[in-house]
Write a structure and sequence with these properties.
The protein is mostly beta strands. It is 5% helix and 61% strand. It has one helix at residues 105-115; strands spanning 3-9, 16-27, 30-38, 44-53, 58-65, 68-74, 78-83, 90-95, 99-101, 124-132, 137-154, 159-169, 175-181, 184-188, 191-196. It is globular and about 55 Å long. This is Glycolipid-binding domain-containing protein.
């Protein structure tokens, strides 16, 4: 069960945004990721709880940020309920999309589990509902993902396979690269892996 810490920063000006303390693990029914977010000053900022089924579909999502809460799952596309900080108002949403995304590294892992890409120059299109900070506002985004490289490295514990993905935002054409090993993001725009207590899990 990997445990560790990511630092999150603005990918454009590198302003520190948060630290995300996480643990995650595959299980008999899929994969689960749980994290707590703190501000750069150390104050509580939010949390992520994401569970996937064996096909990579989100069977449960719970996000907390700035008093806002989102609960969601794959249902007729994806369905969610967003609750305001007072708890007085809740709005339900539904989009014909494949999964969710957001600032947490968990969503990058989840997308790769859903797509199950093999090394190829061919890109696969995916529609996602992004929950944007700081109030978890939903926004539908279209991306294309391609697994452009896979390398295996020798480590002290075992051989580590690192996948390099090229991700394209289809509305702007902006491209970026994501490096993932098992269920841990090694590097991505706005994300740095600062600490890892145990090796990434390997998926069958």
């Amino acid at each position: 069960m990997p445990r560790g810490r990511y630092s999150l920063h603005d990918p454009h000006d590198h302003t520190p945004l948060a630290e995300e303390h996480f643990h995650c693990a595959p299980g008999p029914s899929g994969w689960r990721y749980v994290s707590q977010l703190t501000t750069p000053a150390g104050d509580q900022q939010g949390s992520v709880d994401l569970a996937l089924d064996e096909l990579g579909r989100p069977i449960r999502l719970e996000l907390h940020a700035a008093g806002w809460q989102v609960r969601g799952a794959a249902l007729d596309g994806v369905t969610w309920v967003r609750t305001d900080p007072t708890g007085a108002h809740a709005a339900e949403g539904n989009v014909r999309a494949h999964a969710f995304t957001g600032t947490s590294p968990a969503f990058l892992i989840a997308t790769t589990r859903l797509l199950r890409l093999t090394p190829s120059a061919t890109a696969t299109r995916v529609r996602l509902v992004a929950f944007t900070d700081p109030v978890l506002a939903p926004r539908t985004v279209d991306q294309s993902w391609a697994l452009v490289n896979r390398e295996t490295h020798a480590t002290d514990n075992a051989r580590l396979t690192v996948d390099e993905y090229q991700v394209t935002a289809l509305d702007t054409g902006e491209q970026h690269v994501v490096h993932i090993a098992g269920d841990v993001v090694l590097a991505a725009p706005g994300i740095e892996l600062e600490d890892l207590e145990s090796p990434p899990s390997t998926f069958a």
